[in-house]
Task: structure prediction
Amino acid sequence: MPRTASANFAATDVELAAWAKALGHPARVAILRVLAERGTCICGEIVDDLPLAQATVSQHLKALKQAGFVQGRIDGPRSCYCLNPATLAEAQRALAVLFAGLGPDCCSSSPDSTCS
Amino acid sequence: MPRTASANFAATDVELAAWAKALGHPARVAILRVLAERGTCICGEIVDDLPLAQATVSQHLKALKQAGFVQGRIDGPRSCYCLNPATLAEAQRALAVLFAGLGPDCCSSSPDSTCS
DNA sequence: ACCTTTCATCGTATTTATACGATAAAACGC
DNA sequence: GCGTTTTATCGTATAAATACGATGAAAGGT
Result:
């Protein structure tokens, strides 16, 4: 956030937004897909699969790590990455709950959204 | 994207990332919640419910509109906003498919992610 | 010890996002 | 017509994101 900090919001929404933000770039989605496909670990292979420089991929990996979607450990000179099923499941569930709460028949008095 | 455009990515991932990006801020999640709660329309009420200035809320609404999550029409001097169930359902489904593809047992040879 | 490989970080540049005050546009009431 | 209300947009400022080249650090091979 620019001027002021992003306080004043529900902790639930802040966490949810952080997860969504981590998914808010095609490169990071692609990285998750690569990790799922290759199963476990890798790193240089991800770079080869993406149209981005190594430094940029490393930054995206850091973001995914910070969101908790990815785990990484050092394996000799190379870095081993893999998905973190626990956090992914958490995020999936949180998003599902959000969408459920936004459903046409969740709490609104009007049966369907008549707007435009 | 800074220097270069964000091409070179699967159209699916670009669309998914755009949806996720729209959810990537607590204020926008809160706005969606308010719209779901109040049912249909509003605008100034959203401003009252958020710790943000009117202009900022309008910008977030524009982002949600651009993502397709929200519909808005003019109703006299005020603007009527409501959720767009169709796009929300699309995004929900796309995200569910993504998470399903990231599941521990989707295509990987290793049964579970053993990394850290 | 030296070189290679692999990756994270630094430094930098550019774009985008975020936030607000101020202003303009649209519609209603008088 | 005039003022009020409501909201979108403009202008601006600051922070964050995005991208890459270059540089370090860590580990292995010779």
Q: What stands out?
A: Chain A is about 55% helix and 10% strand. Chain A has a mean pLDDT of 87. Chain A touches chain B through 61 residues (CB under 8 Å).
